[in-house]
Design goal:
The chain is of the alpha/beta class. The protein contains 27 helices and 18 strands.
């Protein structure tokens, strides 16, 4: 611990924290990668940052702290601010979010995120951005006098939250993003979203701008359980009826009549392909989706345009023009999609699926290691951490983190504060879904809730399942109900949680992958969490392809593509209950499948799960404190 005293900003090292810091230090010093399952409460951020800063100082490296959550950006900067207050050491840091989110131009938020980049480039090229012109001298990368002056002021204030950088830059009518990049050039820590490193194009330009080298980067990936799916999404391209219809209107408006037959043909032929398959394909009848080959779609395009490549070029060029004038171009979306469609088959699948109003054609990435392996190979060393990174070996495989050290830390909170119970009754299994089953689940949920003296949250595998059970549950349970709606805005989520947190005996009915299943802190609010059923994903063509792909790669398709992601969701949901050493609560897994060894064995060993359908005595014993002696 001695070597961490210089920077450690808190009074006391928490249990397990010292070990975690030692492990990070040893791994990074040896230029290795470390994958850590580290439950909530250990203090992961500081435990990774302090040793990483020590290694970075010694070796002249830069830390890239990657997170997809705004709250986590905040925690990192707050940790660095505490180091400055307590130890008097001002770590140079740059907090960067997406360019669109930092832009000073009115209406920047209206852009589709993928298109904002083109819009900004065009404004700069045409010298139409006042903020950029105030920041950079002409076409050179040099700062103006005004920007240099503001930069000197900012350097005295670091570490700064991104909002603070934005505010200072806007006050001086400068481009906040460019100012953050300038801070990044001297930074020891850069806090950014995953895509700054895991999208090759963005990474190359970002590293060039901040003048850093991958070989001198320590990469810390926070909430790393989300990284595989984030990379898959980043590397996936989609085309839909909606996009094609608007692209047709755009081409007509631009008087580009030669493009209209292509777009109309693409629209009608893809619709026809889907319909033909729906008429004679069993698979289609079930899921409304089908696989389509690269050649099939290219052939449709070639029915009207022989030269695929020059067509793509034309669409992109024209789309960029439209976008510069009206901020959004669907021709550009079509061009970008057709460009991506020519990509590799290995590690991807191509799916045509029916949607509410038409279809969607996806070039879907299955294998995140196609993007991440190179990053981990090229960087100096890395830390991948999360409270739900189990099994660590899976993340090593699917992200391609060759030679990584794997560590699993125990829950730091007192065991007596938690009861983890498997109630092996009822099931949400697809083939056994019926009204009687929903009613049965509601009865069990109501009984379990009655045994919890305080607020409970129930997480279901889907909104459909939640609503089916709720129809019976609300008549059985006297608690005030808070029923989560899909796709809540940030503000709506905040209001919902404020209202729920003000209650003493209410029930939150949410969905495992919904707004409240992950990343939400409600310390002291919940006394119980009930995870209803297994949140397995619908066996869509994509999931079936994923299982097949991981079977071929690792012989573990079922686990990597289906079961483990569901267990991760369960662990995230379960984690909502106990957020601090003072929280005390019960976590119940309700489904007969949880008692099977292949599922039970996936949970952390120190959870000491009790499997018993007679839940009442366990709840009574736990909440009356009588069971404490045995725990
Ligand atoms: S240069 Fe900066 S302020 Fe101007 S459009 Fe781009 S991000 Fe916005």
């Amino acid at each position: 611990m001695q070597q961490f005293q210089r920077l450690f900003p808190h009074e006391k090292v928490r249990p397990v924290q010292g070990q975690m810091m030692e492990d990070v230090f040893d791994a990074l010093s040896a230029k290795k990668h470390i994958i850590m399952h580290a439950p909530t409460g250990i203090g992961k951020t500081v435990s990774a940052l302090v040793p990483a800063l020590e290694v970075a100082k010694k070796e002249g490296l830069t830390i890239f702290f990657l997170t997809s959550r705004q709250t986590q950006h905040h925690i990192v900067i707050e940790t660095l601010k505490k180091m400055k207050q307590k130890q008097g050491i001002a770590v140079k840091a740059a907090d960067v979010v997406g360019k669109r989110g930092m832009c000073s131009q009115d209406g920047a938020e209206a852009f589709h995120s993928g298109e904002f980049h083109d819009y900004c480039r065009k404004l700069r090229e045409d010298q139409q951005c006042e903020f950029y012109a105030n920041t950079k001298k002409g076409n050179s990368q040099a700062l103006t006098v005004q920007a240099k002056r503001t930069m000197e002021e900012l350097k005295l204030l670091v570490p700064l939250h991104v909002e603070e950088t934005n505010q200072e830059a806007r006050k001086a009518r400068l481009c906040p993003y460019e100012m953050a990049i300038e801070l990044g050039k001297e930074a020891q820590v850069i806090i950014a979203d995953y895509y700054y490193l895991f999208n090759e194009g963005i990474r190359t330009s970002f590293f060039h701008k901040v003048d850093k080298e991958m070989g001198k980067a320590i990469v810390i990936v926070d909430e790393a359980h989300n990284l595989p799916e984030r990379i898959r999404n980043l590397a996936t391209e989609k085309l839909s009826t909606f996009i094609l219809e608007r692209a047709i209107a755009e081409a007509k408006k631009m008087e580009k009549d030669e493009l209209v037959p292509l777009l109309e043909n693409l629209l009608s032929q893809l619709q026809k392909t889907l319909k033909d398959n729906a008429d004679d394909g069993e698979e289609m009848k079930n899921n409304g989706e089908m696989k389509i080959s690269k050649e099939e779609a290219i052939d449709i395009v070639k029915q009207t345009h022989d030269d695929y490549d020059s067509l793509v070029e034309e669409l992109i060029e024209l789309g960029q023009e439209v976008q510069a004038a009206s901020k959004r171009s669907y021709l550009l979306s079509v061009g970008r999609f057709l460009q991506a469609w020519q990509g590799e088959d290995e590690g991807y699948c191509r799916i045509l699926s029916a949607q509410d109003k038409g279809f969607s054609l996806a070039y879907r990435c299955l294998d995140p290691s196609l993007m991440s392996r190179d990053v981990f190979k090229a960087c100096y060393a890395s830390v991948l951490m999360s409270g739900t990174l189990k099994p660590t070996a899976m993340y090593k495989d699917i992200l391609g983190v060759d030679g990584a050290i794997e560590k699993e830390y125990p829950n730091p909170f007192p065991k007596r504060n938690r009861l983890t119970l498997v109630v092996p009754r009822t099931t949400t299994k697809f083939l056994q879904r019926n009204e009687a089953q929903y009613k049965d689940i509601a009865v069990w949920c109501s009984g379990i809730s009655d045994g919890v003296p305080g607020n409970v949250a129930l997480f279901f595998p889907s909104y459909f399942m939640r609503d089916a059970v709720y129809r019976h549950f609300h008549g059985l349970c006297a608690r005030k109900m808070f029923v989560e709606k899909p796709k809540l805005t940030k503000e709506e989520k905040k209001n919902f949680i404020e209202r729920f947190s003000a209650q003493k005996n209410a029930a939150l009915l949410g969905v495992s992958t919904g707004s409240f299943g992950e990343g939400l802190d409600m310390p002291g609010v919940l006394k119980g969490v009930i995870i209803v059923g297994l949140p397995l994903q619908k066996p869509t063509l994509e999931i079936v392809s994923l299982i097949g792909y991981y079977d071929k790669r690792f012989g573990k398709g079922w686990d990597y593509g289906y079961v483990f992601p569901a267990i991760t969701r369960c662990l995230q949901n379960a984690g909502r209950c106990i957020r601090s050493e003072h929280d005390r609560g019960v976590i119940v897994f309700l489904d007969e499948r949880y008692a099977r060894q292949n599922y039970l064995g996936c949970f952390p060993k120190d959870w000491e799960m009790v499997v018993d359908a007679r839940f009442a005595p366990h709840l009574e014993g736990f909440f009356s404190g009588k069971g404490e002696e045995q725990q």
